[in-house]
Structures are given as C-alpha cells and as structure tokens.
Amino acid sequence: MAKLSYQDKIKIYNRWKQGESSMSLSKTFNIHVSGIKYLIKLIDIYGIDICKKNKNRYYSPSLKIKIINKILVEHKSLHSIALSYGLSSCGMISNWIKSYKENNYVIVEKKRGRKSTVANKNINNTNKDESLEEKNKELKKRLLYLEAENEYLKKLAAVVQKKQKQQMKKK
C-alpha cells in the first residue's frame, strides 16, 4: 500500500461507505485494490483511529515469533493474521518471514536510531593508540636512519677536507 495521509484514509473509507467501488478508489488514490479492501476491513474492525500514524511502531520479537508461527506452523493466511493483529499491511509479515528464514530461523532486531558516538570515540581512540604506536616505531626507525646518514656525511666531509688540505700543501 502506498503511503497515505490520515485524511486520505478517512476519505477512502467515507467514499467507500457512500457506495463508491474499491476499483474507482484504487484508481483515484493510485493504490492496488487489495490495499483499499484491506484498509476498509482494518477500519471496520478497529475503527478510524487505527489509521493514525504512530511513528515507529514497535513489534517485540516474541510477538513476531507468535505471528510467524501462526503462518508457518498453523498455516493461517497472511491477510487474516495481519487483520487480527491490526498491522498496517500484510507485507510486514512477509518481510518478517523472509528475514526469519534468511537468519536461520532466528528473529534479529535491527538497531534503531543513530549509532552511539561514545562507542565510536572509544573505537577511534583504540585505533589512534595503535596508529600512534606504529607512528612512533616508524619515527624511531627514521631517526636512526637520519642519524646514521648524518654521521656518514660528517665522515665524508672530513675525508674531503683532508684531501683538500693535502692538495693545498702540495701546491
């Protein structure tokens, strides 16, 4: 079912009560006929308040398992179970079953909201500590290399100066 506003759902229900067919409502609101019929049955059972959008409805894993078992074990229809539990659509159950099967018959709850920044900072700090240690090792190696190079250049300069003095004495 397409996302409808609360007012659209009320219009659909009222127009259907006035005798308009679900097919014409489907064309008017650009929704599949089955979605219109499901919405009307849902409102008939639970009243118009069921259409109010409760942001981020939460369904516990135990409820999901209960619903999934009714479909997979007891072989009840998606439509009837969705109506009996007042779900906004049958597609939710289909998604739950698909996820349930993909995760080896275990309900996996998705984390909601943003990830904790505290956890990210801790991870970043451990990475920084590791990278600092690595940088320190690299810098120590570079320092030893530069010191050796400096000593070599000093000795080379001393040798060159010695040769120049000897050539000056010869002249």
Annotation keywords:
single chain; 171 residues; mainly alpha; Arc Repressor Mutant, subunit A; 3 domains; 7 helices; 70% helix; rod-shaped
Write structural notes for this entry:
The protein has 171 residues and is mainly α. The chain folds into 3 domains: 1-53, Orthogonal Bundle (Arc Repressor Mutant, subunit A); 59-112; 114-171. Helix content is 70%, strand content 0%. It has helices at residues 6-17, 22-29, 33-46, 61-72, 78-85, 91-102, 117-170. The radius of gyration is 37 Å and the shape is rod-shaped. The relative contact order is 0.06. The mean pLDDT is 85.
- When the domains are counted, the total is 3
The parts where pLDDT drops under 50 for at least 5 residues are none
Assembly of the depicted chains: single chain
Give the class from helix and strand content and strand pairing. Answer: mainly alpha
Secondary-structure topology with pairs:
Layout: H1 6-17, H2 22-29, H3 33-46, H4 61-72, H5 78-85, H6 91-102, H7 117-170
Brief account:
The chain is mostly helical.
